[in-house]
Amino acid sequence: MKKPNVVVVGFGFAGRCFHTYLVNITQELNLYGVVTSRKQSREIAKASYHKLKTYNCYDDAIKDKNVDVVILATPNNLHAAQAIQAMRFGKHVITDKPMCLTLAEADAMIETSLRYDRLLSVFQNRRWDGDFLTIKNAISSNLLGDPYIMELFWGQYGEPSGWRSQTSNGGGKFFDLGAHLIDQVLQLIDSQPTLVYANFHSPDTWSLDIEAHATATIIFANGVEARIETSSLAKSPKPRWRIFGTLGTLIKEGIDPQEQAMIAGNIDASEENPRNRAIFHPNSSTHSEKILDTIPGRWRSFYENISRAIENRDELVVTPESCRQIIAIIEAARTSAFTGEIVKVK
Question: Rounded to whole angstroms, what are the CA distances from 130 to 95, 96, 201, 301, 332?
Fold first, then answer.
């Protein structure tokens, strides 16, 4: 059976270090081409991958009948229009996260996917982070009892630049990495999100029209509370995870190591610092704290699932409907931050 031909649109950091790399190591996909308007980037892409086709123009790629799958590693504000256009030309589409900017865009993308019977997914690769898999296992094994508060943090210090520093392009850490954190709590909490309250902050010394620090509290129908925090102001980070349950508290430090290993050229060589292992602090004084070995992450699984889902050999894991829910929460958080009010999730 012929492998689906994949074209990655955009050859910046995400296109170069994430998507082309992961597609190239997925045996059931063929990395067919790259779209970039920069001549130097096209030359680098050709030098990096044997027999790779390059396109200067997006339209040329989606009109190429040899192309089966389009991956959008483009600014967030382009995702919806580019995805809809590609699906109308018969291509399956994967966007980088977030899916798009608004619920209206998400609904239009899903409607187009259904009308043209094309696969649509979003690169929520952090469903395969080692820390997430470890937390998920701890919850499913009832180590924590019933979780009632989840705190997730992602932050560094540094002023955003480029398109990621512009609201019109969907910039800001909350849109970018917040989409991962929101997706993770949606996978862990078996209930519908109902209310969101958020605060966005930016220092006067930075000339930004995006937030530099964001906090969002999501209330679920079952009473569980998730607190999402992203920051470009964090000189000293907080724990990546802190989960309070009826049987104790789980704390996990550090970031999944796959990204750095992948950039170095071998994602399979990723190895977590043992100091970052999760620690469970039981409520009972008769039990000692417990260190949890981290379940190895596996970002390869995302594109392996995509290839099988295209051929109807597996259910799609990251569905567009699940990603629409992320956009619903982001939209509610942005409204809450602007109005100062608690907002219902649509």
Answer: 22, 20, 30, 12, 29
- Can you give the pLDDT at residue 203? 81
Please state the separation of Cα 184 from the chain's center in Å: 9
Distance of alpha carbon 65 from alpha carbon 60, whole angstroms: 10
Can you list the domains of the chain with their CATH numbers? 5-123 (3.40.50.720), 127-298+328-344 (3.30.360.10)
> Considering only CA atoms, which of 53, 13, 49, 10 is closest in space to residue 32?
53
User: Which positions ≥6 away from 266 have C-beta within 8 Å?
Assistant: none
In contact, 73 and 12? CB cutoff 8 Å:
yes
Per-residue pLDDT tens for 107-166?
999 999 999 999 999 999 999 999 999 999 999 999 999 999 999 999 999 888 888 878
Please name which of 192, 152, 172 lies closest in space to residue 101, comparing C-alpha atoms: 172
CB within 8 A of 252, min separation 6: which ones? 131, 134, 135, 239, 240, 241, 242, 276, 277, 278, 279
Q: Which of 82, 105, 77 is nearest to 170 (CA)?
A: 77
- Note every long-range contact of 279-282, with CB atoms under 8 Å and residues 24 or more positions apart, other chains counting: 279/250, 279/251, 279/252, 280/138, 280/143, 280/144, 280/248, 280/249, 280/250, 281/248, 281/249, 281/250, 281/251, 282/247, 282/248
> Would the pTM of this model clear 0.85, i.e. be above it?
yes
Classify burial at 219, counting beta carbons within 10 Å of its beta carbon; exposed 0-12, middle 13-18, buried 19 or more.
middle
Q: What's the per-residue H, E or C state across 255-267?
A: CCCHHHHHHCCCH
Which two three-digit tokens encode residue 219?
């209330």
> Tens digits of per-residue pLDDT, 34-47?
999 999 999 999 99
Question: In a 3-state reduction of DSSP, which class is residue 78?
Answer: helix
Q: Phi-psi region for residue 260, left (φ > 0), alpha (ψ -120 to 50) or beta?
A: alpha
Name the nearest CA neighbour of 33 among 66, 3, 2: 66
Residues, the chain: 346
- Residues 80/100, Cβ–Cβ less than 8 Å: yes
